[in-house]
Amino acid sequence: LLGYAPEELTGRPLSQLGILSPGSMDAAMADASRVLSGGHISASVYELRARDGTRRFVEMSGAPIFEGENTVGVVCVARDVTDRMGTERALEHTLSELRQVLGGMIKILGLIVEQRDPYTAGHQRRVANLARAIATEMGVPLGRIGGIRVAGSIHDLGKVSVPAEILSRPGRLTENELKLVQAHAQIGYDLLREVEFPWPVADIVLQHHERLDGSGYPNHLRGQEILLEARILALADVVDAMSSHRPYRPAFTTDEVMEEISRERGALYDPEAVDACLRLFREKGFRLE
Fold first, then answer.
1. Torsion angles phi and psi, residue 246, rounded to 5
2. What is the mean pLDDT of the chain?
3. Where are the domains of the chain?
4. pLDDT digits (tens, 9 = 90+) for 215-247
5. Residue 29, Cβ neighbours under 10 Å: how many?
6. What's the whole-model pTM score?
7. Residue 181's closest CA among 218, 148, 214?
8. 267: closest CA among 227, 235, 233?
């Protein structure tokens, strides 16, 4: 495995062999101490240096040999996992590149929406950041937070189908025009549902205008029928929208926005999400940027 003759290694202390990489030495010494104290190790991986300078990886399992109550030796089984480790690292590199590509595509989709609706420039980015912060404050698992961030970054994607003059109109919309705008949630879902995200991004986008009391759209879902991710995103969307200037109204102050979501806590918006949002702004100095 390493190119050494047995007599070159036999009888020498582990710390003097020179075959363990610096990163593996401490782990190997700790494992050896554990086994000598009567414990076991299973599938510990160490990086070794072969005689020719190449790196090898071994997976080690070990158990003590007892004579009565005394440990008199150790039996170890080592397996060469160099090829497996190389494959795993190559996969990690590929996944990292794919994440970068996905992030770039998400950013482009967000910019496309902003070109259609310049009054909401930066809205999706701010909503994604706030939704992620709310989810983190709530203790949502990290894996689910990734889906919230992605969905938040493109939650208004369906607005690409809404005429730009309607999106930027300062006056009141007609009933038909309002229906066109509200259709963006369904259209966004239709555009995203065939994309194989590791999260339910399309469903989150579809539901981000639903409300706990069933007054939202497009499907008038209630309470727990709405995904947690969508409930969080819905609140973040409202907070940023109210905090931003629109053609038909000035921006609300932060205090006014916090009062509004407090008033509708449990009626329109998820109570835990509201509580987390209030803590962020009132206690932790969060700002929409």
1. -130, 160
2. 89
3. 6-80, 109-282
4. 999 999 999 999 999 999 999 999 999 999 877
5. 13
6. 0.70
7. 218
8. 235
Fold type of domain 109-282: Hypothetical protein af1432 (1.10.3210)
Tokens 């702004």, residue? 281
- Edge-first strand listing for the sheet containing 55-67: 41-49, 55-67, 70-80
Beta partners for residue 67, in sequence order: 70
User: Residues 173-231: pLDDT tens digits?
Assistant: 899 999 999 999 999 999 999 998 999 999 999 999 999 999 999 999 999 999 999 99
**Identity of residue 232:** I
| CATH class of the region 6-80 | alpha beta
Closest by Cα among 180, 194, 227, 187 to 208: 227
